[in-house]
Amino acid sequence: MAAVLVFVETQDGSLKKSAPEVLGQAAQLAGDLGGGVDAVLVGQGAGALAESVGNFGVDKVYVAEADSLANFSIEAFTKPLLKAVAAATPKLVLFAASVNGKDLAPAVAAATGSAILTDVTEIGVKDGAISVTKPVYAGKALAEVSASSDTVVATLRPNVFEPVEPAGGSATVESLDTSDIGDLRATVKEVLAKASEKLDLTEADVIVAGGRGLKGPENWHLIEQLAEAVGGVTGASRAVVDAGWRPHDEQVGQTGKTVSPKLYIAVGVSGAIQHLAGMRTSKCIVAINTDAEAPIFKVADYGIVGDAFEVCPVLAEELAKLRA
Hints:
By secondary structure, the chain is of the alpha/beta class.
C-alpha cells in the first residue's frame, strides 16, 4: 500500500516543471504517513517517462497509454486515475494545482468520496491527519485546514514547494487497463494552441508584470526589456488585458493565473485585491509606481516610487550588466 499517490503531469513528452515539486513533497509526507510513494502517468507515450519518474524514489509507477489519451479530457484521464487509486489505496493523492490538476482532483475526490484540499501552500501530517495552509478570501487570509477521510486529495500551488532532484533508483511499472477509455461522452479531437516558446506564467521563476501605468500598448517594450534583463517572462494586470494590450494568457490575478515566482516585478500595477490574489505568494515582490499610496506597496518587499518610463530602462540596463 502506498501512503501517497502522485499524478505526474507531462507535456510534449517530458515531465512538467511542477512534477519534481509534487514528487518531492510526496516523499516528505510518505514517511509521516507510514508508507511509500507511487505515481501515475497518463497520456499517449506516457510509458517512456516511467523510468524518469522512478529516479525520484517512487516505488511503483502506474501507466495508462491509449490513443484516446492523446489529448487531455477530464473524463478520459479520470478513468485510469481511479484505477490507480483503487490499486494503490493511498492515504493521500497529490496533484499540482495546474489547469489540468484543478480539473482532475475534484473529479477523483467526488468519485472516491474523499476530502479535497485545493491550492495548498503548506502541507504536513498532524495527529495522523493531513493538515494544510491555503489562501482564502482572495489571498487576504490564510486558513489552516485538516482532513481525516480515509483518502485525501490535495492540489499544491506550483512554484511554492522546493523541487527534488532525481537521485536514481528504479520503480516497478504497472500498466493500467485502458480498454474502456474509448467509451467517452465527449472526445477532444484537436487542440489548437498558439505556438510559443514562452514559459507558462505558473511555472516561471521570474515575472515582470505591467499595468495601466504604462499608458498604452506602445510602451510594452519597457516590460519586455526588463523581463529579458532578468531572464523572466511578462505578465499583465486585468486592466491591461481588458484593454486589449496583452493576451489573456498573460493575466495575473483572481480571474487570471495564480503565480508564485521567486521574483515578481510589478510595473505600473496599482495592486487591486484581485491582482494581489494571484501573486502575493511570490517569494520576492518589487513594485514600481508613481503613487506612494498604491496598495501594491503593502505586499512589496522592495518599492520604487517613480515613473516607470524613467526607472525601467535604467533598471533593465543595470540588471543586464549583473547577468552578463
